[in-house]
Design goal:
heterodimer, A: about 325 residues, alpha/beta, Rossmann fold, six-stranded mixed sheet, elongated, B: 2 domains, 14 helices
Chain lengths: ~325, ~350
């Protein structure tokens, strides 16, 4: 075991399946707290999770999870983490209480202790009154909650949740996000939440790790990452096109959707430049304020810098791998 | 608003945050943005003392217990599957499985019951027909009809049907492998579960039959010394049968995602190979074709071990090699398919 301030740390982590490189020299540093793992299908999220669980051996490089080596201390890692899979993983013929108890026993918990703890966690995830129902009769939200209960029965130091809000309605989604947030905030545990829903990650996490085509393309605090491009939002009236053209000619970077323009804020003089441009083009500016970037904006900026033409995260996350290859300007890994 | 200026429930939706009346202008602005954009009107929504209520308040409770070592984790898998036959809350076995197992257990002790009847009514012929002897010990374990044609393969097929395939189908493999469970431990515990149940059915009933016979007849040491090696040989053949049933059955279960295919394929392997070998033997009178039938290979070895005249022409070593190869292939398929089971998606 290696003492480290990071719950997950990798150096040059590479995993190749023949000619296909699933993880490409990944230097990952995940601190204590809630971290979102973002990336489209095929980005390498599942491979990364399996490597971190010590289930597959890295081709090159290495790393630690909670101070344990991912190459040869997989059992120690899996004792200390809770993994909530994206897909169904519960026996539909078992009741929730017995399913959760069994998952605790599989970790090495004494049957009586596991039963007691199963009652606690099922109450925590909101299934207190449903715990004697067979899992097969559960709604999607209840099944997700039961999956969460199986992963937190031993109060893990790190919870890896793979798409925890998958298939949930807005109310269940909110409850799930609040529940995992509580584990971090009240329980003092860490969370690595894989998701393709930007809002969910922004709600539950304060850090992100973004993957694309097996490469780490961004990591750090969401607030810090958002600051990479600050924009001024203008609501223009009468001559928005002229204003856009004038601003661009002045050397400012402008994005426009209808009468709303977003201008990259270079420095304090940007505001004056905007006013001057408005004056020059006789365009009314009805509202002007600093734009608070969302994670979605951050994603678009990152993808733009990588050379992709993506209008929204949905474009990339919902497309098939073959469709993504068409968009990709660079070399796509085989 | 009442006389004291307090906000009443009925008025709530018509009032703003501070209890101010919401004007038509502000409503229009909120709905359509009809203003010129320079004013700072904001939508005033009803916000009164209406309490939404709290259904429950969850708090995260930490757990500071110790996790037990590897053997306890393995024991939990074994316990989960075995206790499912007798208790709720463990692996749910169907009622048909339980009934079939019970029926076969009772049926397997039919020879003991007949020997008991022979002793009770004093019919020595009946006793000679069913009492413990070289042939009857062999027949208890390796007799083809009905034991190895109906009872044992049926129970084995029902047991192995969903043993691994259902973990694939339901994704429960993720529950196992995202925990500190090694794949070889998982495979070994599943193997042991099936082997224990089949051992009870095949070797356990053999032991009861042999012990029951000793008690019925009040046999002495000389009889014991005479028959005990035969009992041991029959038990050994029984364990070989259990091992083979289990390895082939679990291999089939590991390549499938349902109960039906492994169960039917298992019965087909045992019964069709036997039937095919029988038909070819009838045509060409060459018993070597029986090497394709796992049952016949073990029966051949059992006959050799118990000292019964062999019904096969080829040497028993060929049957030994054949059954070893069959088991090796089955175990290879089993281990390789279990190692391909996923935690992220199937």
């Amino acid at each position: 075991m290696v003492l480290t301030e990071h719950v997950i740390q990798t150096q040059g982590l590479t995993k190749a399946y023949g000619p296909h490189i699933a993880l490409d020299s990944m230097d990952l540093k995940v601190q204590k707290g809630a971290t979102g793992l973002l990336g489209p299908n095929g980005a390498g999220k599942s491979t990364l999770i399996k490597t971190l669980l010590g289930l597959i051996v890295a081709s090159e490089g290495g790393g630690t999870v909670l101070g344990y080596d991912i190459r040869n201390e997989g059992v120690e890692i899996r004792k200390r983490i809770g993994y909530m899979p994206e897909y169904d993983c519960l026996n539909p013929d078992l009741t929730a209480i017995h399913q959760v108890t069994y998952s605790g026993e599989l970790l090495g918990m004494n049957p009586k202790v596991a039963t007691q703890r199963a009652h606690e966690v099922l109450e925590y995830v909101g299934l207190r009154d449903q715990r004697y129902r067979e899992v097969g009769t559960f709604s999607t939200g209840m099944a997700q909650a039961a999956k969460l209960a199986t992963s937190i029965i031993h109060d893990p130091e790190l919870l890896i949740a793979d798409e925890p809000t998958n298939g949930l309605d807005s109310q269940s989604r909110k409850f799930m996000l609040n529940t995992v947030k509580q584990i971090v905030e009240e329980g003092g545990r860490s969370l690595l939440m894989a998701s393709h829903l930007m809002d969910d990650v922004e709600n539950a996490c304060d850090r992100i790790v973004m993957l694309h085509e097996g490469k780490l393309i961004a990591q750090g605090r969401i607030e810090d990452l958002k600051a990479i491009d600050r924009e001024v939002e203008i609501h223009a009236w009468g001559g928005a096109s002229k204003l856009e053209e004038h601003l661009s000619d002045s050397g400012l970077k402008v994005r426009r959707t209808g009468r709303v323009l977003r201008v990259i804020r270079e420095d304090e003089t940007t505001y004056d430049q905007i006013i001057e441009s408005a004056d020059a083009t006789s365009c009314q500016i009805r509202r002007m304020h600093d734009h608070e970037a969302s994670l979605e904006d951050l994603f678009l900026v990152i993808m733009e810098r990588l050379g992709y033409e993506v209008k929204s995260s949905k474009d990339l996350f919902s497309s098939t791998p073959s469709a993504r290859k068409v968009d990709s300007p660079g070399e796509v890994l085989p | 608003m009442n006389e004291d200026g307090e906000v009443g429930d009925i008025d709530a939706e018509f009032l703003g945050e501070e209890g101010k009346a919401v004007s038509g202008a502000s409503r229009m602005e909120a709905a359509y943005g009809s203003g010129d954009g320079d004013d700072d009107l904001t939508a005033q929504v009803a916000k009164t003392g209406v309490v939404a209520g709290t259904i429950f308040d969850t708090t995260y409770r930490p757990w500071r217990g110790e996790l037990n070592p590897r053997w306890m984790r393995n024991w939990s898998i074994l316990r989960h599957h075995l206790l499912g036959f007798v208790k709720k809350g463990h692996r749910p076995w169907s009622i048909w499985m339980k009934l079939a197992l019970f029926g076969c257990l009772i049926g397997s002790m039919g020879d003991l019951a007949m020997a008991f009847l022979g002793t009770v009514i004093g019919d020595t012929d009946l006793y000679r027909l069913f009492g413990a002897s070289r042939g009857n010990l062999y027949g208890h374990v390796l007799g083809f009809f009905p034991r190895n044609a109906l009872c044992f393969p049926l129970i084995a097929a029902l047991l192995i049907g969903g043993m691994i395939s259902e973990d694939r189908r339901h994704g429960t493999s993720a529950i196992y492998f995202s925990r500190p469970i090694e794949r070889r431990d998982y495979t070994a515990m599943k193997f042991l579960t099936v082997a224990i149940v089949l051992s009870i059915l095949i070797v356990g009933t053999l032991a009861i039959y042999y012990l029951g016979d000793i008690l019925l007849r009040g046999e002495g040491w000389s009889w014991l010394l005479d028959t005990f090696p035969m009992f041991l040989a029959a038990a050994l053949a029984g364990f070989l049968l259990v091992f083979t049933y289990t390895s082939i059955g679990l291999a089939l279960s590991s390549v499938s995602q349902g109960r039906f295919f492994p169960a039917v394929a298992f019965l087909a392997i045992f019964l069709v190979s036997k039937l095919l070998a029988f038909l070819i033997w009838q045509l060409f009178e060459r018993s070597v074709i029986y090497l394709i039938s796992p049952y016949d290979c073990i029966a051949h070895l059992g006959q050799t071990m118990l000292g019964i005249s062999s019904s096969y022409d080829h040497p028993w070593t060929w049957s030994l090699v054949s059954i070893l190869i069959i088991n090796a292939i089955a175990l290879y398929v089993l281990t390789s398919r279990v190692s391909s089971m996923e935690v992220t998606r199937e």
